[in-house]
Design a protein that fits this description.
- Chain A: It is found in: Endoplasmic reticulum membrane.
- The complex is a heterodimer of chains A (about 900) and B (about 150).
- Chain A has about 900 residues and is mostly beta strands.
- Among the domains of chain A are: about 1-15 and about 855-890; about 220-340, 7 Propeller (Methylamine Dehydrogenase, Chain H); about 590-735 and about 785-795, no CATH class.
- Chain A contains 8 helices and 64 strands.
- In chain A, strand 31 (about 315-320) and strand 32 (about 325-330) form a beta hairpin.
- Chain A is globular.
- In chain B, helix 1 packs parallel to helix 4.
- Chain B is elongated, with a radius of gyration of 29 Å.
- At the A-B interface, strand 38, strand 42, strand 45, strand 48 and strand 49 of A face strand 1 of B.
- Strand 45 of chain A pairs parallel with strand 1 (about 145-150) of chain B, so a sheet runs across the interface.
C-alpha cells in the first residue's frame, strides 16, 4: 500500500515538473538595441540616450541592456510629450506623472523644448505651440531647420530664400536676426551657442547677432567639441584640436578620437585603437601635460564615437565603426554588444551538421514518393513505419546508454538533428556579418565586409554550388553564399563570396553597372542528373551579368516585370536579351507589388479537401498583386505576368493611407490589411482564387489519376482557365503594422498569418479564420458543388483575438520585419522578428502533426512504467505470502 | 496378462445394427430433419445482425479505443463467419441433401454482417470512398517558367 502511495506521489510530482517545464517562451530570446548613439546623459546606474534615428531610451549601465525605450519625445531629462497617431493628440508630462496639457495636432512632433518659465514648446512641421500663459500656436512661413537653445533661450532657425533667420520663443515668437546662406546648411550645438555651416557660409549664432567664422577651418571640422568651444579639424596629414580663432590646442594622429570633459572642461580624453589595444590619453588643458594608459580590446575597427561615462572611474562608452559598443574602465571591459544588428539587410540560416546522422527512414521516403494519404500503400507504410520505429528505438537506446547523465548533450543533438537549433546569420548595413546560435544566443562568428564605402548597398544574397567557385579549396558540396553590393555613386557592382566553414569573406568581382533591377538564382542543367546554380543579374539598361560567368541561359522561359515610375512593364529573357512583352499604365499611385512566387519555396499542393470533396487552388506563380491608391480608395489588381492581363480587380473605400498598409500574396491567397476610417478598425481583406472544378466522387478521382490515358493535369491554372475569385473582409481589433506568413518545410501543415501589431506585439492568426470560404450563416446548407466550407466557422466580421496566440507574450518590441526558417520537422519553424529589437521564437501552428505536446514527459512515462512493474511484482509476492492466501490453500 | 490394441484405422467396419451411410437411409423424415438443421445453420448469421447494428449504433461515430475494439471484433466475426462456412456445414456434408442454397443464405448473412460493419467504418471515415481520401493522387503544382519580380530585397 505504501509503495502504491509513493508511486502515485512520484507520478504526480513528475507531471507537475513537466507542467512547470512547459513555461511560455522557453525557446525565446530577445535583444533590445540602442544603435548608433548621438547623445547620452548619465544618471547613477542609467544612461539616457538618443541615437541617430532620434530614438530615446535608457541603457542599464552595468549590463549594456536597453532597459526602456521611450516612445515619447523627451523635452529635457524630466519633461516629455507623448503623441497618439490614431487620436492625433499630444499629452505633456512633467516627470512622468502629471498631464499638463493636451492638444490635437496633425503630423508628428519634430522637436520639444522647455522655455525659460518651464513652459512646453512643441514644434511640428511649421507650427509652434507653447503652453506659456494662455497657450499660443503660431505657424511660420518657412521651413524650420533647427530648434534648440542659445544661452538657454529656446530658438528656431528658419530657412528662407537666401538666408537663415533666428527666432526666439519667449512670450511670443520674435525674429532676432538673419544671415546670408545657401539652402543646405547644418547646425551644430557649440557651447551655449550654435554653429551654422553650408557650402559657402559659416557663422556662430549668438542671441542677437552672428559671428562670421573662418570658412576654411569649418570646412575641415571633423568633430565639434562644443562645451570646450573647440573643433577637431581633419586635414590631409594632421588632426588638430583648434578653437574658433584657429589656434591649435593639441595635435593628434589621424586614428585618434577626442572626448571632451563635460564637467570641468579641463581635460580632453583622446582615444586610439590599434592592434587590439585601446590607448587613452588624458590631456590637461591648463598644464598641457598628458597621461596615458592602455587597455586590451579585441577589435581592429576604428572608433566612430566615444563618450565619457564616469570621470572618477575613468569609464568610457566606445562605439566602433562596425557598431560594436563597449563600456570600459581602468579595470578593463565591463560589457560589449553588437549594435549593428539594429539595421539588418538580410538574415539567413545554416543547419548544424550532426556527426551521428540517423539512417534513412524508408517510411518517410515512401510517404514522400506515394503521398501521405495514399490508401494503396497503407499496409506497406504501416509495416515500414513499425520496422523503422524499432530501428529508431534501437538507436535511441544505444545512444541513451552511451550518454547516460548527459541530458543536455542529448537534447542539443536532438534539436540539431531536427533543425530546431540552427545558426542564424545577420548581414547588417554596417557591413558586419554576425552569426548567433538560435538557442544559446552566443556570438559564433563575426566578419566584416571591407573594400567598400558607405554608399554600397546590398542588392542580393544567394546560395550557389561551391564547386563553381575556384577561389576556395572547397571539395565539399556545401553551398556557398554570394553577396552582391551596388554603389549608386560609383556605379559599380561588387561581388563577395562568403565561406562560412572557414569564416572568410572575399571580394571576387567588381564591375561597372547601372542600378540592378532583377537578381535571380538560376539552375543550369548540365546533362542527366547534373546541374549547377548561377545567379543572373540585370541592370536598368538591360545589361545581363551572371555569376559565375555563364553564356547560355535560355533553357527555361524567364519572365520578368517591374514598376517603371507607375508603368508596369513585362519582359521575357530571350537569347541573352530582354524582350518587351507587355506594358500597363496604372492611372493610380502604385503602393505595393507582391509576387505569388517566393524564392526557395517548394512546389505547393494544388488540391485541398473539405468535408469529403476535393477542391483545387488556382496557383500560378506568374500572377502578381498590385495595390494602388485613388483618393481614399484602395484598389487591388491581380495581373498575370506572362500575358500582362489583369485577371482580377476590386476596390475598398474609406482606407486611411496614413496608417500601415500591407499586401501578401501566398499561393492562391491575397491578403491586404489597411485601416478603415468608417469602421475605425484595421481590416484584413482576403481574396482567394480557385479552379471551377470540384471533385466529389472517388471513382472519378481514380479514373482521372490512375486509369486515364490523357496526361495528368499538373497545372490547374493552365487547364481551361476557369477561375473563381472569392473575397471577404474581416475586422481585426488590434492594429496591423506588418503582415507576413509562416512557412514550413513542405507546406503540408497550416500556414498562419503573422501580424506585428501597432503596439509592437507579435500575433499569430489562424489562416482559416480569414478564409473567404466561411459561409454566411451557421444553418445555411452547403451545396455539393459549392466552395463554401462546412468545416470552417460561419462568417463574423470581427475576428476573435485569442491572446494565447500572442507569440511575444506580455512583451512589446520595436519590430518591423520577420524572417522564417523551416526546420526538419514539418510542424515547426524558427521565427526571427527584427527592427530596433530582435525577438526569436519557435512556432508550430500544427504542433501535434509530428511532435509530442510540451507537457509530455519521458521521465514521467519511464518512471510510471517502472513503478507499475515493480508495484505489480511486489504486490503479487505480498499477496502470495499473505496469511489469508496460505489459509485458503490449506483449506 | 492381456492387452488391448486399438487400431487407428479409418475404415473400420460398422458395429452390429448401425449403418453410417445415410444413402442407405431413404426416409423422408430424416431428410426433413437434415434440411431443417441446415436452414438453422444458414440463418444463424441473421440473428446477430440486429445485435451488431444496435451495438454499433450505440458506440457512436467517435474514434476511441472502445469503438475500435468493438468494430474490430465485429469485423473479425463477420470475416470468420464467411471463412468458416464449410466448417459450419461439415456435419451435413454427404448426407444426401444439397447444401448450395443453405450455403448461399449463410454467405448472404455473413456478407450482410460485413456490410453493416463496413457501413460503420464508412461513417467513421475509415473507408476510402470519398474523393478526399485520394487527394494525394493530385500532383503538386509545378511552374514551368521562372517569373522574377522587381528586386527581391
Amino acid at each position: 500500500m505504501l509503495l502504491l502511495i509513493v508511486s502515485v506521489a512520484g507520478i504526480i510530482f513528475n507531471n507537475v515538473l513537466a507542467l512547470h517545464q512547459q513555461q511560455a517562451g522557453v525557446h525565446d530570446w530577445n535583444k533590445r538595441l540602442f544603435g548608433e548613439l548621438k547623445y547620452i546623459q548619465v544618471q547613477d546606474q542609467t544612461i539616457f540616450y538618443q541615437n541617430t534615428d532620434n530614438q530615446n531610451g535608457i541603457i542599464e549601465k552595468s549590463t549594456g541592456q536597453v532597459k526602456q525605450r521611450n516612445t515619447y519625445t523627451m523635452c529635457d531629462s524630466y519633461n516629455y510629450v507623448t503623441y497618439e497617431p490614431n487620436q492625433q493628440i499630444i499629452q505633456l508630462f512633467n516627470e512622468g506623472y502629471q498631464v499638463l496639457a493636451e492638444k490635437e495636432i496633425i503630423g508628428k512632433i519634430d522637436h520639444c523644448l522647455i522655455g525659460l518659465n518651464g513652459e512646453f514648446i512643441i514644434i511640428y512641421g511649421q507650427t509652434i505651440f507653447s503652453t506659456f500663459n494662455n497657450k499660443f500656436t503660431e505657424k511660420v512661413d518657412h521651413q524650420i531647420i533647427y530648434a534648440g537653445y542659445i544661452f538657454d533661450v529656446p530658438v528656431v532657425v528658419l530657412q528662407k530664400q537666401n538666408e537663415v533667420c533666428i527666432y526666439s520663443i519667449k512670450e511670443s515668437i520674435s525674429q532676432n536676426y538673419c544671415v546670408e546662406s545657401l539652402s543646405n546648411g547644418n547646425i551644430h550645438e557649440f557651447g551655449n551657442t550654435l554653429i551654422y555651416q553650408d557650402n559657402k557660409f559659416a557663422y556662430q549664432l549668438k542671441e542677437n547677432s552672428a559671428k562670421s567664422l573662418d570658412f576654411e577651418i569649418i570646412k575641415k571640422v571633423d568633430q565639434f567639441v562644443g562645451f570646450s568651444q573647440t573643433f577637431v579639424i581633419n586635414d590631409k596629414s594632421k588632426k588638430q584640436i583648434v578653437n574658433l580663432d584657429g589656434q591649435v590646442e593639441y595635435e593628434l594622429s589621424q586614428d585618434e578620437f577626442v572626448i571632451q570633459n563635460l564637467e570641468s572642461q579641463k581635460y580632453y580624453y583622446i582615444l586610439k585603437q590599434k592592434n587590439n589595444e585601446l590607448k587613452i590619453v588624458t590631456f590637461d588643458r591648463d598644464t598641457k601635460q598628458t597621461h596615458s594608459e592602455i587597455i586590451e580590446l579585441q577589435t581592429n575597427s576604428l572608433i566612430l564615437n566615444a563618450f565619457l561615462i564616469d570621470q572618477n572611474k575613468r569609464q568610457f562608452l566606445i562605439q566602433y565603426q562596425d557598431l560594436q559598443t563597449v563600456l570600459i574602465d581602468n579595470k578593463g571591459i565591463k560589457w560589449s554588444t553588437e549594435q549593428s544588428l539594429i539595421s539588418i539587410d538580410t538574415v539567413f540560416y545554416e543547419k548544424y551538421e550532426n556527426q551521428e546522422q540517423t539512417h534513412k527512414n524508408s517510411y518517410y521516403e515512401s510517404l514522400e514518393k506515394h503521398g501521405t494519404n495514399n490508401p494503396l500503400f497503407l499496409v506497406q507504410n504501416v509495416i515500414s513505419r513499425v520496422l523503422n520505429e524499432i530501428r529508431d528505438l534501437q538507436e535511441v537506446v544505444t545512444h541513451f546508454i552511451d550518454n547516460v547523465g548527459k541530458e543536455k548533450v542529448q537534447t542539443r543533438e536532438m534539436e540539431q538533428t531536427y533543425g530546431l537549433k540552427q545558426k542564424v546569420y545577420f548581414l547588417t548595413t554596417y557591413g558586419t556579418l554576425l552569426c548567433y546560435d538560435t538557442q544559446e544566443q552566443s556570438l559564433l562568428i563575426k566578419l566584416q565586409i571591407n573594400n567598400q564605402d558607405k554608399s554600397f548597398k546590398l542588392v542580393a544574397h544567394h546560395q550557389i554550388d561551391s564547386n563553381l567557385i575556384t577561389h576556395f579549396d572547397n571539395n565539399d558540396a556545401q553551398p556557398t553564399h554570394v553577396l552582391f553590393y551596388y554603389s549608386k555613386e560609383k556605379q559599380r557592382l561588387n561581388t563577395f563570396v562568403l565561406d562560412l566553414q572557414h569564416g572568410i569573406i572575399q571580394q571576387v568581382a567588381s564591375q561597372s553597372s547601372k542600378n540592378i533591377i532583377w537578381t535571380l538564382p538560376y539552375r543550369v542543367e548540365g546533362g542527366p542528373g547534373q546541374h549547377h546554380n548561377i545567379v543572373i543579374l540585370i541592370d536598368e539598361e538591360n545589361n545581363i551579368f551572371t555569376y559565375p560567368k555563364h553564356d547560355a541561359i535560355n533553357t527555361k522561359e524567364i519572365i520578368l516585370y517591374r514598376n517603371d515610375n507607375g508603368v508596369l512593364k513585362g519582359y521575357k529573357l530571350f537569347n541573352n536579351q530582354l524582350v518587351d512583352i507587355w506594358t500597363i499604365n496604372m492611372k493610380d499611385e502604385i503602393l505595393i507589388i507582391r509576387s505569388s512566387y517566393h524564392v526557395g519555396e517548394e512546389n505547393p499542393r494544388v488540391a485541398i479537401w473539405d468535408d469529403r470533396k476535393v477542391i483545387y487552388k488556382l496557383i500560378d506563380h506568374s500572377n502578381f498583386a498590385v495595390l494602388t491608391s485613388d483618393g481614399d480608395k484602395l484598389k487591388l489588381f491581380i495581373i498575370n505576368a506572362k500575358t500582362g492581363k489583369i485577371i482580377y480587380q476590386s476596390v475598398q473605400s474609406e482606407a486611411d493611407f496614413n496608417q500601415p498598409i500591407n499586401l501578401v500574396f501566398d499561393e492562391h491567397q491575397v491578403f491586404v490589411t489597411y485601416y478603415n476610417k468608417s469602421q475605425m478598425m484595421f481590416e484584413i481583406w482576403t481574396i482567394e482564387i480557385y479552379h471551377a472544378k470540384i471533385e466529389v466522387s472517388f471513382i472519378k478521382m481514380l479514373e482521372n489519376y490512375y486509369f486515364t490515358k490523357t496526361p495528368i493535369i499538373t497545372n490547374y491554372y493552365k487547364s481551361d482557365f476557369e477561375a473563381f475569385f472569392l473575397q471577404q473582409v474581416y475586422g481585426y481589433p488590434l492594429g496591423i503594422k506588418y503582415l507576413g506568413m509562416s512557412r514550413t518545410q513542405k507546406s503540408l501543415t497550416k500556414k498562419n498569418l503573422l501580424i506585428i501589431t501597432t503596439t509592437g506585439q507579435l500575433h499569430s492568426l489562424d489562416r482559416n479564420l480569414v478564409s473567404t470560404r466561411r459561409r454566411e450563416k451557421a444553418d445555411q446548407p452547403i451545396l455539393e458543388y459549392s466552395l463554401q466550407s462546412a468545416e470552417l466557422p460561419p462568417y463574423q466580421y470581427q475576428l476573435p483575438i485569442n491572446f494565447l496566440n500572442t507569440l511575444s507574450y506580455h512583451q512589446t518590441f520595436d519590430i518591423e520585419k520577420f524572417s522564417i526558417e523551416s526546420t526538419n520537422l514539418e510542424s515547426s519553424a524558427l521565427l526571427l522578428v527584427y527592427g530596433s529589437d530582435i525577438f526569436f521564437t519557435r512556432i508550430a501552428p500544427d504542433k501535434t502533426y509530428d511532435m509530442l505536446l510540451d507537457n509530455f514527459n519521458y521521465n514521467a512515462l519511464i518512471a510510471t512504467t517502472v513503478l507499475i512493474v515493480i508495484a505489480t511484482k511486489v504486490l503479487s509476492r505480498l499477496v502470495k505470502s499473505s496469511k489469508q492466501v496460505k489459509q485458503f490453500y490449506l483449506n | 496378462m492381456w492387452e488391448i490394441k486399438i487400431k487407428r484405422e479409418k475404415n473400420l467396419p460398422d458395429p452390429v445394427g448401425y449403418k453410417k451411410a445415410y444413402d442407405d437411409c431413404q426416409g423422408q423424415e430424416l431428410r426433413d430433419d437434415l434440411e431443417k438443421k441446415a436452414m438453422g445453420i444458414a440463418k444463424g448469421g441473421f440473428g446477430n445482425i440486429f445485435m451488431i447494428m444496435f451495438t454499433l449504433y450505440m458506440t457512436g461515430n467517435m474514434m476511441n479505443i472502445f469503438t475500435i475494439v468493438i468494430i474490430g471484433q465485429f469485423l473479425w466475426q463477420a470475416i470468420s463467419t464467411i471463412a468458416k462456412m464449410d466448417q459450419a456445414f461439415s456435419s451435413l456434408e454427404n448426407r444426401g441433401i444439397s447444401l448450395f442454397l443453405y450455403k448461399l443464405i449463410y454467405l448472404s448473412a455473413g456478407l450482410l454482417q460485413l456490410g453493416v460493419v463496413l457501413y460503420k467504418l464508412y461513417n467513421i471515415g475509415l473507408l476510402p470512398l470519398n474523393s478526399a481520401d485520394w487527394i494525394d493522387l493530385v500532383p503538386l503544382h509545378h511552374q514551368e517558367e521562372i517569373v522574377v519580380p522587381y528586386s527581391y530585397n
